[in-house]
Automatic annotation (TrEMBL), chain A:
Belongs to the thiolase-like superfamily. Beta-ketoacyl-ACP synthases family. Keywords: Acyltransferase, Transferase. InterPro entries: Beta-ketoacyl_synthase, Ketoacyl_synth_AS, Ketoacyl_synth_C, Ketoacyl_synth_N, PKS_Beta-ketoAc_synthase_dom, Thiolase-like. It comes from the Bacteria. Signal peptide: none annotated. Residues 3-417 form the Ketosynthase family 3 (KS3) domain. SMART domains: PKS_KS. It comes from Actinacidiphila acididurans. This is Beta-ketoacyl-[acyl-carrier-protein] synthase family protein.
TrEMBL record, chain B:
SUPFAM superfamilies: Thiolase-like. It comes from the Bacteria. Keywords: Acyltransferase, Transferase. Coiled coil: none annotated. The keyword tRNA processing does not apply. It comes from Actinacidiphila acididurans. This is Ketosynthase chain-length factor.
Amino acid sequence: MNRRRVVITGIEVIAPGGVGKDRFWDLLSNGRTATRGITFFDPSPFRSQVAAEADFDPYAHGLTPQEIRRMDRAAQFAVVAARTAVADSGLSLDALDPYRVAVAVGSAVGATMGLDQEYRVVSDGGRLDLVDHTYAPPHLYNHMVPSSFATEVAWAVGAQGPSTVVSTGCTSGIDSVGYAAELIREGSADVVVAGSSDAPISPITMACFDAIKATTPRHDEPERASRPFDATRNGFVLGEGAAFFVLEELEAARARGTHVYAEIAGYATRSNAYHMTGLRPDGAEMAEAIRIALDEARLNAGEVDYVNAHGSGTKQNDRHETAAVKRSLGEHAYRTPMSSIKSMVGHSLGAIGSIEIAASALAMEHDVVPPTANLHRPDPECDLDYVPITAREQRTDAVLTVGSGFGGFQSAMVLAAPWRSPR
Amino acid sequence: MSTRTVVTGIGVTAPNGLGTDHWWSATCGGKNGIARITRFDPSAYPAKLAGQVPGFQAEQHLSSRLLPQTDRVTRLSLVAADWALADAGITPADLPDFDMGVMTASSAGGFEFGQGELRNLWARGAGHVSAYQSFAWFYAVNSGQISIRHGMKGPSGVVVSEGAGGLDAIAQARRQIRKGTPLIVTGAVDASICPWGWVGQLATGKLSTSDDPTGAYLPFDRDAAGYVPGEGGAILITEDGEAARARGARVYGEIAGYGATMDPRPGSGREPGLRAAITLALADAALDPAQVDVVFADGAADPAADRTEAEAITAVFGQRAVPVTVPKTMTGRLYSGSGPLDLAAALLAIRDGVIPPTVHIDPCRDYALDLVITAARPATLRTALVLARGAGGFNSAMVVRATH
């Protein structure tokens, strides 16, 4: 039996530095950064005071006042990005059986911004232990249970197939798309509107990452605060955003003659079973995920043209990941460009995996590898080619993108040009 | 697709019984686990009843190192997973680490932990937020902690589809088993009975405001007027059928079919998605409706939702053509925990030849359902259908079948 192959036919990105995939690619390909001092609230009580904020006006993207009130910012990102991705695909979902159209939304922390704001009100600034229900808005439950994001996306695009939120911390954005691809491959859906969204730039998130010193305290040069693989890096920069895709079966996409960005050729997730936040330096579990994703893609390690790194900018991550890539790609690791777009758009937790899939697909589209910004002096223990500062033009037909998250999740996805001949 | 997925272990933490045996005998005996909330003073709130897991002493089961970094929901999950593994006769250390994964569902994560840290933030200041907040409240926490506790490095994940999520997680487990991982710990436990979680649930307007523990949650009753929330759920051990047979495992049954749909957006005039989910699950199991021996219904206890469910069941099976039960009348609705708990009940019902009852209700005749009320009903069972719906339009249906 011929296996069903899954391709990306629509993309939209909402990221710091500009809404829309064209602005996103412009930022990346020019190596500009979108990190800045926090403007959403007074950051002075916090150790880390920088973030990568998206300039997003929900009215400008067609959301109604009621939709804006009931949806957390992350849900707003999701709905706008999903709709635009569908438009980009050229698919008329109304013409399809709605039960064959599925939805998969990744999110690590759901409506954390809305929850933070509403808790402050119902507890009257933390004074009430028995919080006051009479001050709760009717949509509070939608904030509490982020499956509301999947509902909003399904309603927005008219999908009635299997729909869910995939929440695996910072690998959510890869895992939601990987899950979506499996739905098509196994025949449970013909089209999946898949992606992920997070909007975590909120006092509670800043405070919890402060407590474990995961985020950078570098305030003096906020635009240079995110420095993956650099010897001077000292934590990640929190970001926000969303990326959504339309996934279809390859033959169906060909039959309607639509543009195909990339094939989702392989995907795997594994766990380190070690620590909720810690990583063992050998990268063995991420390497296993990479090995299986390549195997599923029927690709040799030597055929990978570009590695889109997790590259969060913590010392622990950068070394773990470098080890994992060496372990899985062998000598080819030294010959393969590997960059972290978190240097430019920050780390948007559950969203970033999908944003990085978008960056990978656009790298294939343009045959340009985005750089790692702010990388001037590599950590001696990180000795791969991290494409410092400047984007690089090169033929890019196969991309490996990886993610690593709290909870121990390690995920890998291989995107490939569907026109490439399988081995 | 010949690989079968079988259930070989069950671990239960439920409001009417802690541990599978206590819960199952309570469930067959019609014992109610719904009562006035004791974990905080509910007097000021319009709803005051919940299904609380009784007598759970986390420190008896978990190390003192784990307690400060875990919400109640994670403690319940870890203990349920321990019990499920023991029930399956699995010692994880004896198995290859990449051959075991964890797929669970969650609705609200570690919500009570989040409540404590939000209070610390707003009442005391940013420097008072726990280092554990970065993971103890988030939705992925239970799968992460179970994988760490048992050294499981295979595919793991978490799905959130409110009340339907527990069945969706089991479907994810089956998917991973079919792709080659021999054992997946799956199911779900939810728990957010704390003031902040209570206010969130009250906001739905769907909670019963009755103070009568036997009259507050009445699905398919003419007096249905909302549901009672509960906490708990079930963790299951699912395995590749061949692997389970090779090790001589006791098998409860097979995950034979699954279907999931979304309701259309409100006001569309289209049919709700539940009937399609049932049809998909039966087709996936290659079964005719007549081969289903019992239906474990979702039982929202909202008149419109009850009608929708009754219409879906009768459209597929005919009027009063199959026994229907809602044992969650004894526990309250456990959000993502309900589907796996009902699945465990279905498997034990098949084993023991008994359908647990839907307690407290006087069925509305208009629904034309053969509801098993008042007391358990003896029956020869081979195949059961479990339904679970989630707020926001999620419909999941799963078929379990005896393997002998």
